[in-house]
Amino acid sequence: MWMAPSDDIGNGKADMDLRRVVAALVERCDRLEEAAERLTAQNEALKAENAALKEENRDLKDEIARLKGLPPRPRFKTKPSGMEKVTAPASGKKRRKRTRGAVKSKLEVSREETLRLEAPAGARFKGYEEVLVQDLRIAVEVVRYRRERWQTADGKRLVAPLPAGIMGGFGPELRRFIAAGHFQGQVTSERLTALLGGMGLAISKRQVVRLLSKGLEGLIAEDQAVLAAGLESARWISVDDTSAPHAGRNGFVTQLGDRRFAVFRSGVSKSRRAFLGLLQAGRSEHVVNDVALARMREMNMAAAQIDALANHGDKRFTCADAWAAHLAALGFDKLAVQPDPVKVATESALWGAISNQGLLGDTAIVSDGAGQFRVGDNHALCWVHCERLVHKLQPRSKTDREAVELKRTLIWWLYADLKAWQLDPDPKRARALRARFDRIFTRRTGYVMLDRLLTRLHRQKAQLLRVLEHPEIPLHTNGSENDIRAFVTKRKISGGTVSQAGRIARDTMIGLLKTCAKLGISFYQFLGNRFAVPGAPHVQWLPDLVRRAPA
Prior knowledge:
- This protein has 20 helices and nine strands.
- It is an alpha/beta fold.
- Among the domains are: 182 residues, no CATH class; 86 residues, no CATH class.
- A five-stranded mixed β-sheet has the order 5-4-3-8-9, with helices on both faces.
- Helix 6 runs parallel beside helix 20, helix 8 runs antiparallel to helix 11 and helix 13 runs antiparallel to helix 14.
- The protein starts with 11 loop residues before the first helix and ends with a helix.
C-alpha cells in the first residue's frame, strides 16, 4: 500500500503532485484491466463464432458433396478423454519392463540337417552346435488329376471325384493364402493378383474375387451358429455400428459380441427393427405372445390394435412378408395414428420371436446410447460415451470451464469406484453409489449447456448404473470399438462391396477372424481345416468352443 511521505520531508506541494500521479496511474490500471477483460470476452465470443462458422462451412461442403454424388467426408471422433486408462487400479508394484519370451522352445522342428566341415589333421571332434532357422516355402504347384471314368451296364457315367477343397481349378492351399491375406492381412485383391502373378501363378483378379466370395457356405453356417451360441449363453453383449457402403449406396454394419465371439451384419438400415432381426441369428420370425403384447403396452399402442392381434388365430409368422400381409389384413397400414401401429407391432413381434427362441433372456446389452440398441429391460450405457459428452462441451468463460472440469473429475471418481465395486459387489455400497450419482447429476452449476446435459444423463440413471444389478457387465463398449476397427480398416483399404456374395463374405470372414482371436485359435489354421488343406490341424466347431468358454 502506498503511504504518504512524512511531514519531515517538508514539501506539501510535491506531496500533492505525487498523490495526483499515483491516482492517475491507479485509474489507468483500472481502465487497462477493464479493457483486458472486455477483449478476453470478445476473444471468447469470436472463438465460439469461428467454431460455429467452421461447422457451418463443413456442413455446406458436405451438402455440396452430397448433391454432386461424391463420397461423404470421414467423421473424426473427439480425442479420447482417457477416463478408462486413468481410472485403472494401480498394481502397487513397480512394473518390470516386459521382456521377450522364449521363442525357440515353442518351435517344432520339421527337418534336421547335419552340416559337415573338412577339419585339419589332428583336430578333435567336439559335438554339434545347433541353430534353429525359420523359413517359409511358397511355390506354385500345378497338379494334373487323371480321373477314371466308368460306364455302368445301364449306361450311367461315373467319374472319380476330385479331392476336397478344390474350386474352379484352384487348390485349397491357394484359397487359404488368398483369404488370410485379404481378410487378416488387409491386402487388396489387386495386390494379391499381382503378388500371385509374380510367383508364377496364372490367375486374374476376377478369379481372386471369386475365391474370396464363393464356396463359403460352410463358413457362413458356422458364423450363424456362432451368433446363436453367443446369444444363448452370453451374460452380456456389447454392440456398435459404422458405415458400410454397398453397391454404390450408403449402408451400415452392426457388430455385437462379448469376450468369446464377434459377429458383423451389414444392411441398408440401422433401425431398431433391423437390429431385432439381427438378434434372431439368421431367422426372420414374428411371434405374437405374452412378451410381444407386453411390449406393445409399454410402447403405448392402442388397446383396440392390441386386442386385434391377441384375439386373432394366427400368432406365428415365418417371414417378414407374411407378417406385413397379416397387418394389412387387420388394417394397421391404414391407421394414421401415433405411435405408428405397424412399427410398434413389428418391433414387439420381433422381440416376441427372440424370446420364443430362447435367445438373450437376461442378457444385458451394452451400447453407446444409439436408439436402435435400446431393447429389452437390461439395456446398459457406456460410461466413456457419457463422459465424452461432457468433454466435448466448449465453455466460454473461466467459471464455466471450471464447472466442466469439476463435473468431469467427479464422474471420473465415480467411474473408478464403480470399477472397484465390480471386484467386490456389496448392496450397501451400491446404495451409496446410487445416491452419489444423484448428487453429481442433479446439482446445478450455472452453466446452462452443462446443466441440460446433466439432466439428460440423469434420466438415463438406470442404464448407466445397470452394473450395480449385473456386476459382470463392462462399463464401456471398448471391446466393440476394437472389434469394429478391423471392419473400418477393411473399408478404408478396399472400399465398399458390390455383390451380395461379397458383402456376406466380408461380414462372415471378419466375424470368424475376430472370434478365432478371442478363442486363442490361429485363423490360418482354422482356414486350413475348413478349406480341407492336406495335413492341416483339426480345429473344433467354433460354436461349441463359444459355449464352453467362460462368459
